């Protein structure tokens, strides 16, 4: 970690002894080791945060806003170091990592400001002797579990609204990417956010931490980003104490190109949507549907662009696609390609086999709709394409999934744009855009992609209770 300009970022985190080892997916070299907490220690953390939350909640929103703005500023001042850490432990190209740092920081600035606008309301009473009102209050201790594909932004997208609302916040980052998480937490402490208001923990196992976060009655809110499989289990665990939950789970985003689309624009959007973080995001375009009349043109233009993409070390400036996160991920992706090819799918771009933890971008046509590559979440740089004729049949295929996170389509026809946007059963729809996430708009899915929203004004509500106050016995 001697590459870091700011050596304070990880000074109190890296240990020599036994702990969670963190590896670089580019070459599997050891980046460092961080301490692991046992369940009893994490339970104590929760109790500390319960006390800390009481004082934090009492601070005026304007004061919490100042702490958050300072944190935001420190993140931007350290953006090169944070981007480097993201690339080292997660593999994404440095330019994307820098984008993530800025995107992640934007949630802190946004919620610093939104926290000052946690308005309640007054309600006209049916009788003159009462005044009815609502006030917004912090939920209490909030706990979160975050994934490795956005080691920084998934933490700030949950932590910033929690802190702005007056909650305390404890988070378990992915064991694959804890360094960025600890570095960004250190900056929060340097900004003056108290240690009994914000904590980052790595447990002896993810399961252990999950148990404390979901079963402990002092945790009042649980927020998770990860797979639907794990989310489903954690949501059930949360039922034991009737916790508020937000679940950002898997996706299976359709990317639809209608025959009235601007094809050059659609190709650009497809590349941006599919290959970000080597295809390892829950909103990456997963399966492509292209209408008959533009099918050949779209594929020719797409393949020309895909074959220009450079796969390599995320630290090299020219890299477009970094390594995939683990050896197991690579094997799973190669198996998916084999399975599809075994059922008649054909690869139409350059077929390259890469050594190391890399998967070359792969464009497949003649893919059957019922194959795992279409039905499941790929989470890799594979782009399966299906030809379609009619809009109705297309919408039915797009909605034929347990997921409902993001969907994308390209069309220039205003009637179609409204109709299709309305008919897609997804929490987010990109029309003529392949990358749509922003701190000002609500991110979240429907169906088994989860519940709750992150970002926007809705993101703050996830950490607030609405309390109704009735003042009676009044004389008017
Ligand atoms: P992904 O496939 O993106 O890694 P996971 O759902 O496996 O998705 O992981 C997302 C987060 O959930 C990670 O922080 C991981 O450590 C955590 N996790 C995985 N299994 C469990 C579990 N049984 N209990 C609690 N957390 C878990």
From TrEMBL:
Every Aldehyde dehydrogenase domain range: 20-469
InterPro entries cross-referenced by the UniProt entry: Ald_DH/histidinol_DH, Ald_DH_C, Ald_DH_CS_CYS, Ald_DH_CS_GLU, Ald_DH_N, Aldehyde_DH_dom, Aldehyde_DH_Superfamily
SUPFAM superfamilies in the record: ALDH-like
Pfam families linked to this entry: Aldedh
A single MF term (Gene Ontology): succinate-semialdehyde dehydrogenase (NAD+) activity
GO biological process, one term: gamma-aminobutyric acid catabolic process
Keyword Oxidoreductase tagged: yes
Active-site residue numbers: 248
Entry keywords, A to Z: Oxidoreductase
PANTHER family referenced in this protein's UniProt entry, alphabetically: SUCCINATE-SEMIALDEHYDE DEHYDROGENASE, MITOCHONDRIAL
Family that this chain belongs to: Belongs to the aldehyde dehydrogenase family.
Protein name: Succinate-semialdehyde dehydrogenase (NADP(+))
Protein's organism: Vibrio rumoiensis 1S-45
Lineage: Bacteria, Pseudomonadati, Pseudomonadota, Gammaproteobacteria, Vibrionales
Gene: gabD
């Amino acid at each position: 970690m001697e590459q870091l300009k700011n050596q304070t970022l990880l000074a109190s985190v890296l240990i020599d002894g036994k702990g969670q080892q963190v590896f670089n997916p580019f070459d599997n070299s050891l980046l460092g080791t961080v301490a692991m907490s046992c369940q009893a220690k994490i339970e104590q953390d929760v109790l500390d945060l319960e006390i800390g939350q009481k004082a934090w909640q009492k601070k005026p929103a304007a004061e919490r806003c100042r702490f958050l703005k300072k944190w935001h500023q420190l993140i931007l001042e350290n953006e090169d170091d944070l981007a480097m850490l993201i690339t080292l432990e997660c593999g994404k190209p440095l330019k994307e990592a820098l984008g993530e740092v800025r995107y992640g920081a934007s949630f802190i600035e946004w919620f610093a400001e939104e926290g000052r606008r946690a308005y309640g309301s007054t309600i006209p009473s049916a009788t003159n002797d009462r005044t009815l009102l609502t006030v917004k209050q912090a939920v209490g201790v909030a706990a979160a579990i975050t994934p490795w594909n956005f080691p920084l932004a998934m933490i700030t997208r949950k932590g910033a609204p929690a802190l702005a609302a007056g909650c305390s916040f404890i988070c378990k980052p992915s064991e694959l990417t804890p360094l960025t998480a600890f570095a960004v937490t250190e900056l929060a402490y340097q900004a003056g956010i108290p240690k009994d208001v914000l904590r980052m923990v790595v447990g002896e196992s993810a399961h252990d931490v999950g148990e404390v976060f979901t079963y402990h009655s002092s945790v009042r809110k649980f927020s998770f980003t990860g797979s639907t499989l794990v989310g489903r289990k954690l949501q059930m665990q949360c039922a034991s104490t009737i916790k508020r939950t937000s679940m950002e789970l898997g996706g299976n985003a359709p990317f639809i190109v209608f025959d009235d689309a601007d094809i050059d624009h659609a190709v650009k959007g497809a590349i941006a949507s599919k290959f970000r973080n080597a295809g390892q995001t829950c909103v990456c375009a997963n399966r492509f549907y292209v209408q008959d009349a533009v099918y050949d043109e779209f594929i020719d233009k797409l393949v020309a662009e895909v074959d220009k993409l450079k796969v390599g070390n995320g630290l090299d400036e020219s890299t477009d696609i970094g390594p995939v996160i683990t050896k197991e991920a690579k094997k799973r992706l190669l198996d998916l390609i084999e399975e599809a090819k075994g059922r008649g799918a054909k690869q139409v771009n350059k077929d390259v086999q890469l050594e190391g933890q890399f998967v070359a971008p792969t464009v497949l046509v003649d893919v059957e709709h019922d194959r795992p590559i279409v039905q499941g979440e790929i989470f890799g740089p594979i782009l399966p394409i299906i030809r379609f004729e009619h809009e109705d049949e297309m919408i039915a295929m797009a909605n034929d999934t347990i997921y409902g996170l993001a969907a994308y389509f390209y069309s220039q026809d205003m009637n179609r744009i409204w109709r299709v946007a309305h008919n897609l059963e997804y929490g987010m729809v990109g029309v003529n855009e392949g990358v749509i996430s922003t701190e000002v708009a609500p991110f979240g899915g429907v169906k088994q992609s989860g519940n709750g929203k992150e970002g926007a004004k809705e993101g703050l509500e996830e950490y607030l209770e609405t309390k109704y106050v009735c003042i009676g016995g009044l004389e008017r």
